[in-house]
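[job 4471] stage=fold_predict status=RUNNING
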Amino acid sequence: MAVSDGNRVAKLLSADRDSDPAQSASGDPARSLAKRSRTAQRRYDEISPADLEAAVRIAAFSGLKRQMLDALFEEASVSKLARGQVLFRQGDAAVSLIIIVEGWVKLYRVTPAGDEVVLNVLTEGDSFAEAVTFSAALYPASACAVTRSRVVVIPADHVVDCIREMPDIAIALMESTSAYLQRMVQRVEQLTAQSGIQRVAEFLSSLSPCMQGPCRIALPYDKSLIAGQLGLKPESLSRVFAKLRSIGIDVRVSEAVVDDAAVLRGLVANDRIRFHEGRKRKHRESFAAAR
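[job 4471] inference complete, writing structure tokens
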């Protein structure tokens, strides 16, 4: 990582507390954690500047002051996960707030019949387990790395201690939980109101590096997980891929080759493949006539 990036993190987390007169006033909750914050500076050496910068910049913490971040990350550590490694299991005691700084992690539940239901697949910049951090609860789902990943882990009891002294942290976590619930509502809507083609098109569009024109889209994880995330059976997903191939969207082993990203995005709102097939055939006929 460039030295300048490291300097930005250092300025964010270790700037002189006297630079903000309001923070020097007596009665400031963050001031009572000053001694612990100095200890935190020694602990930050255990976390790379890149990991720390990624963790403090997640949406949940965007409104927190430097002193609050300093105290909150005092007990943080980094966990490296191999592909397939379980971070925690459904029913385990909820002991940590977790922030992904690299890779992909799936959240899933196992039904009484033993089937796995994928709730979500999260990546860099996402956090989870905020809600259960507030109480001595159990994890309602399991978490497993689907690629090599790194996560920042903050002990739940430390988070609660910080909340007692700095209530703004609780507000930030509540806002993050609210945003996650809104995303889950959108996911339920997607699973119930969209066709399989629309779900796949929206998934690929979310990963597309361009808005229109030809592009290649890297698939972040295997197709069986994509099927589970989109509420499809693997054989149903294969049929959708076959239909997409007819309009210039070729999904291969680890990538999708797209003739026109605009067509892919258009499918999210309208999955009538026949319309696109007809338009593509008309273009081919016009081209042949011109020759």
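[job 4471] summary: Residues 201 and 264 are 6 Å apart (CA to CA).
[job 4471] exit 0
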